[in-house]
Backbone:
């Protein structure tokens, strides 16, 4: 996916990529965080405590001069139902 996005950003055509979200999640969760090296952004600069033992990355940007925040905790990994949320009209 990253190679396809890099090609598109460099002026190439869009590329179709088929990936497994489950496999991608396992890959991401299997990697340790990397400490920032000299001259890079502090990796904890955007980390926010969500409570309940959770931490996350704050949403980027501001709205009406206020920093954005997450409205609620995410579901525990693997606990959310495997279903699309319904729209407001029930479909």
Residues:
């Amino acid at each position: 996916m990253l190679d396809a996005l890099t090609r598109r950003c460099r002026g190439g055509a869009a590329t179709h990529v088929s990936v497994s979200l489950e496999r991608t999640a396992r890959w991401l969760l299997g990697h340790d965080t990397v400490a920032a090296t000299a001259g890079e952004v502090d990796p904890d600069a955007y980390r926010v405590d969500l409570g309940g033992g959770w931490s996350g990355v704050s949403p980027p940007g501001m709205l009406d001069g206020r920093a954005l925040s997450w409205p609620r905790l995410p579901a525990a990994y693997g606990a959310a139902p495997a279903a699309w949320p319904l729209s407001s009209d029930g479909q």
